[in-house]
Amino acid sequence: MHEMSLCREIAELVQDTARREGFRRVRAVRLEIGKLAAVEPEAIRFCFDVATRGGPADGARLEILPIEGRGWCLACSRSIDLDDPLGTCPVCGGGQIQVTGGTQINVKDLEVE
Q1: Residue-wise pLDDT tens digits, 35-94
Q2: Alpha carbon distance 18, 36 (integer Å)
Q3: Closest among 35, 10, 4, 34 to 109, alpha carbons compared
Q4: CA 20 to 30 Å from 39, out of 26, 33, 85, 107?
């Protein structure tokens, strides 16, 4: 389950930021997850609780903000919404789609005290 390794990296990022910025506790973490990022949001929620135990984000609320998938159709040269990286263009039906967005996982911000 790669969600656990992602959450461990997020917990480490939060700890490093807490040391650098001088806050002691995180109340909320806002995480942007692209719809094409190949992660399961519910698995992220579970793993986040485990990965943050004992650190500044222990007990923090996790807010997941979905980012839409985007692609570029090589057949009709249009930017399109994309729910599946192997999907077809809803405009022309072409199957040569280059993914241009929605694969990212970002810590958008932290609510701290």
Answers
A1: 999 999 999 999 999 999 999 999 999 999 999 999 999 999 999 999 998 989 999 999
A2: 30
A3: 10
A4: 26
Q: Both tokens of residue 109?
A: 């911000």
Backbone angles phi, psi at 9, to 5 degrees: -65, -40
Number of domains in the chain: 1
Beta strands in the chain (DSSP E): 26-34, 61-67, 70-73, 78-81, 97-101, 105-112
Q: How far apart are CA 63 and CA 1, in angstroms?
A: 20
Sign of CA dihedral 31, 35, 37, 38: positive
Tell whether pTM > 0.70. Answer: yes
The per-residue pLDDT for range 79-103, each reduced to its tens digit, is 999 999 898 999 999 999 999 999 9
Answer yes or no: are the C-beta atoms of 57 and 20 closer than 8 Å: no
Residue span of the structural domain in which 27 resides? 2-112
